[in-house]
Amino acid sequence: MDQTKRKWWVLAIVSLAVFMAMLDITIVNVALPDIQNDFSSDFSNLQWVLNAYTLVYAATLLPVSKLGDIIGRKKVFLLGLGVFVIGSLASGLANSDTWLNIFRGFQGIGGAAMMALSLTIVTTSFPEKQRGLALGIWSSAVGLAISGGPLIGGALVDSLGWRFIFLVNIPVGIVAILLGMFVIKESETNKNGKIDILGLIFSTAMIFTMIFALIQKQMNVDYAWTDWHILSLFGLSFVLLLAFIITERKVKQPMIELSIFRNWSFNGANIAAFVLGAGLYGGFTYLIILMQNYMGYSAFETGVKMLLITGFTIVLGPIAGIISGKVGNRWLISGALFISAIGILVLRYMIEAPFEWGYLMPGFILLGISNALVNPPISNAAMSSVDKEHVGMASGIINVFRQVGISFGVVMLGIKLTEGYNESLNTSIKNLTNIPTEFGNQMLDVFHKAGAFAGSQIFDSKQAETFKAMPAFNEMKKLVFNAFNSGMQDVTLMIGIFLLIGTFASAILIKNKKNTQNGN
């Protein structure tokens, strides 16, 4: 196979792998009710079906990137694909929620290897003139997986059952492995390279404890940030960060060459990746809750609606990669993030209860354009701002920032939603004069325990049966929908702030390529 054809086959294989790795972060959401019914598990165990994958995935991104530089990126990438396939098979055959959580964590190791190494393989397989287009296609796979998860997951769950959201990875993964063995060229390896054991332990433990602290806050909304469960984990993460920095300064072959953080463009790309994850991708979670639990759409219907965002990614992603080489990563990133901020503020202005699809469409269009335009130049800015020997680690770092951003965003936005929801309920129910105080307090307790995510489900529950005949029942339902709207107002404002921070940070920090060398 000649070099021209080979590089496009390489791009197809790694894009497929990345699609699977990112899809498994979002696809499980729609299968949780079916998994809960099969295993009769409680909500806290159920959340670990999501969190086990995310936690291990984020914690192993840096180690697998370094391992690829030492023993070969092709080997680690294909090994990651193999681990992912085995983890998918085991998850699909799991006979309890405990084993499913364990297999999901194992699957996360493979996902991390695929994600971290794929970006480096694409970057080194294409000449500079075509790299923007290639990264655009790669980024389209990422965006499609994140926003298309509900659609694909809903279709599989409805037609074949929840186990097939994992089992479908097996034939796809095997084909990718076989093709990758023949098509992907092995990278140059550092034969004298050694794994920085202390750096590996400190970096992995640092990311693990940071993400785990956020997960603890997400799973226990009654915990204050100063609660020892949260504070101790953040404190440990900070200590591990200091230990990691000290270690990397002293060892001869560090896990991360800290000098790459002197490059302002690299830092700007990482900030953009973080706020994109925290704002846009973290916000997807609550837009999906709005559509499913308050607008009454099924998982599949929700996925179809999300195609309004995904569709732009498929069309504009590759074009954005080409444009970034002409207008520069700096302005394309900051401009795309600004469009996203406008889109989310349009949503904030238009959304009101009772919710209708027409309220979401204008904002979704702007979010779709932004999502399509922003990912390729972020990847391009990060990879082009470091020396060739550091591209593997740069890939791991940019993915860590994106994933930590998603986890941070989901937690912070969830807290904001719950606070706004509860405050609105407290005020609204206390102001009602046509119901007994005792009844109002009972309903308030029911709504608080159900939480902002319950939506219409709480009014169909057994708890609400005794209240349905009450004259104020419909009025209570209206108050709950208004309370969720109040929470979403706070959520969309916070997302807008995240995205505007990214807009200005990328415009200030990211420079043209000719100015990025040596930290200038």
TrEMBL record:
GO molecular function, one term: transmembrane transporter activity
Protein name: MFS transporter
Keyword Transmembrane: yes
Keywords from the named record: Cell membrane, Membrane, Transmembrane, Transmembrane helix, Transport
Organism of this sequence: Psychrobacillus glaciei
InterPro entries: EmrB-like, MFS, MFS_dom, MFS_trans_sf
PANTHER family (alphabetical): BLR6921 PROTEIN (PTHR42718:SF46), MAJOR FACILITATOR SUPERFAMILY MULTIDRUG TRANSPORTER MFSC (PTHR42718)
Taxonomy of the source species: Bacteria, Bacillati, Bacillota, Bacilli, Bacillales
Keyword 4Fe-4S appears in the UniProt entry: no
Membrane topology category: Multi-pass membrane protein
